[in-house]
Design brief:
Blueprint lengths: L5 H17 L14 H13 L5 E10 L6 E10 L3 E8 L7 E5 L2 E5 L7 E3 L4 E3 L2 E2 H5 L3 H4 E11 L2 E10 L8 E7 L5 E7 L5 E13 L2 E11 L6 E11 L18
Length: 259
């Protein structure tokens, strides 16, 4: 083999460096080495979806399915710190007065005709594609350990793709794949999985509007992954900050909310 002269060695080295720098990087190589990055992404996205402060919001849910009439439910949610919440059914009239109380990940339902609240799970279906936890505890950062899988490019925009694994079996879903826009931390879409890793449903975050100083999604479209054509559309309105004392998040106080 012919031995390279010193100048030839330098040229070869420079060409090698240029080749390496010009090589396309995989999406995962664009990730930061900061191990806190997935947690920061999740927390910032949570703050886009809902304010940190105590708040009240009205939620309308319309569910459609093949060969079935539309089902409409309305709820009013009171939330404090994403750890305590109350979900009051306001429509239909037959279910008015039903109240969900969440403290941490403990959930009870109060019904006017039943003297004592009944314990429920967050994963239990509330209406249509909506589980109890979808309304009572919309706190991904408190319920899941995030891992940054990759960065996807969709329609020219880059999105973090997070894998969220439940901190225990008491959370609403065992696993969530969650797309968050890189430029502004807006939630884009989510996939929800069962304990057996079966895809249950998907969600799209839509209709961003300026609410309480942030652009927030005011529509959530949840689609059943197992039954074609079944879908629930959640519309959020009348969101406002509200002072919520701890005493209202108690089982003894539930009856007073009817009045």
């Amino acid at each position: 083999m012919q031995k390279l002269k010193p100048l030839q060695c330098v040229v070869a080295l420079l060409l090698g460096l240029l080749t390496v720098s010009a090589s396309p990087q995989s999406d995962t190589s664009a990730q930061s080495d900061d191990t806190n990055l997935p947690r920061e992404i999740l927390e910032k996205s949570d703050q886009i979806r809902f304010p940190r402060e105590s708040f009240q919001v009205d939620i309308s849910v319309m569910t459609t399915a093949p060969s079935q009439s539309e089902d409409r439910h309305k709820f009013q949610v009171l939330s404090k710190g994403n750890e305590n919440s109350i979900v009051m059914t306001t429509a239909p009239a037959a279910e008015r007065g039903q109240i969900l109380l969440m403290k941490g990940r403990d959930l009870w339902v109060f019904m006017p005709e039943v003297s004592q609240p009944v314990r429920l799970s967050l994963s239990q279906r509330l209406t249509g594609q909506v589980a109890n936890g979808d309304l009572a505890r919309a706190n991904f950062s408190g319920d899941y350990n995030p891992r940054l899988l990759r960065i996807d490019t969709i329609d020219g925009e880059k999105y973090y793709v997070l894998e969220l694994l439940g901190v225990d079996r008491g959370v609403t879903y065992h696993k969530v794949l969650y797309w968050v826009q890189q430029s502004n931390f807006w939630p884009y879409r989510a996939e929800f999985y069962s304990l057996s890793d079966r895809l249950l449903k998907t969600a799209r975050y839509e209709n961003f509007q300026l609410v309480l100083g942030e652009q927030r999604p005011t529509r959530l479209v949840m689609t059943d992954a197992l039954r074609t054509g079944e879908e629930s559309v959640l519309e959020y309105s009348e969101m406002k900050l509200r002072d919520l004392p701890d005493k209202i998040f108690t089982k003894d106080y539930l009856k007073k909310l009817e009045q």
